[in-house]
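Appendix B, record 7
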Amino acid sequence: MSKSVLAAIDLNREEAGGPVLRRAAELAKMDGASLSVITVIPDFGQGFVASFLPEDAMAQAMEDAAERLRLYVDRVLPNHPATRHVAEGTVHHEVLDCAARIGADLIVVGTHEPTVTDLLIGPNAAHIVRHAKVSVLVVR
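Structure tokens (predicted):
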């Protein structure tokens, strides 16, 4: 029985996030658990690329992602309470870090049909499944 469910959503693939978010909400409701939703934006880094961006680019990107996530969750799960988290960095690292930080005992992630690149590098969902200290539900 879960007390805290974390759903990981990619705002660049909103159509794939709907089933993940709805399933996570369903499981949270069944168990009387809290629901949190996270999206991760890539880190601009401190190197060459970052030098071409305005100083406040990351802060603006985080603010924009937070607003997009708020609108998305409200559209997919109207009238369902959910805590929203926006992180910057590597998806699998940030999802696992957030899960530990909030005490999630279930992580719900989506996946897609694997490509050759996924087989060589490993998709985020597989990385989360391998390294999570709690149960992970993968929604296709």
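Remarks on this record: The chain is about 45% helix and 20% strand. The beta strands are 4-8, 34-41, 83-88, 106-110, 135-139.
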